[in-house]
Amino acid sequence: MTLAPPFANHGDIHDAKSAKKRLPFRLYLITDRTACRDRSLEDTLVLACDAGVRAIQIREKDMKAGDLAVLVSSLRQTIASYRPVLFVNDRADIARVCGLAGVHLPESGLTPQMARRCLPKNALIGCSTHSVETARRAEDAGADFITFGPVFFTPSKAAYGAPQGIDRLRQTTQTVGIPVFAIGGVTAEKVPVCLAAGAWGVAVISAVLSADDIAAAVADFKTALGDL
After folding, report:
1. How many CB atoms lie within 10 A of CB 40?
2. Is the whole-model pTM more than 0.85?
3. pLDDT > 90 fraction of the chain, expressed in percent and rounded
């Protein structure tokens, strides 16, 4: 199997004014191998990519660095023929070693400036944000896009307080010039209100990974987003 070129050129998206037009995906799938029901993570991602998913963040936060690197390398080979835009959570070193498109940084992790020092120039950097202030800081620090949330209630984030809500999502999208992905409790039915608030797309975990029919779930998101 021929792997997609590492750090493939996804367009010059570092100009904030044109970033929203050039980021090549609207649905950002984030992994959690415990959410895949009776399927393996590899089988689940194959189904998702076969249904049209273009961007995936490998986010297995409980894994040690060595085990995570092995998993990332294996997953990359398994879905290489689909040529998805692949990210890994937090580990810029693994992103580089495994030839991924980029890295996704937690709000309390490395800054984009730090991560970019060990990544190729055309690598993409996403950042998790939970307030307008941190969204602005991420953009100023050189992030190519951000996730913002949780927008809606989701059990996995209940311990962190109330959802941010649509109004704060709208305030964030009006404040920054880079693409914003709404995250947290997002379903296909909730996509329109997120887009109306200015979100470029949505980031999801269980809405796809835990679906009875992954192809149907992805198709619902494609219909709601207009594209994947």
Report:
1. 11
2. yes
3. 85
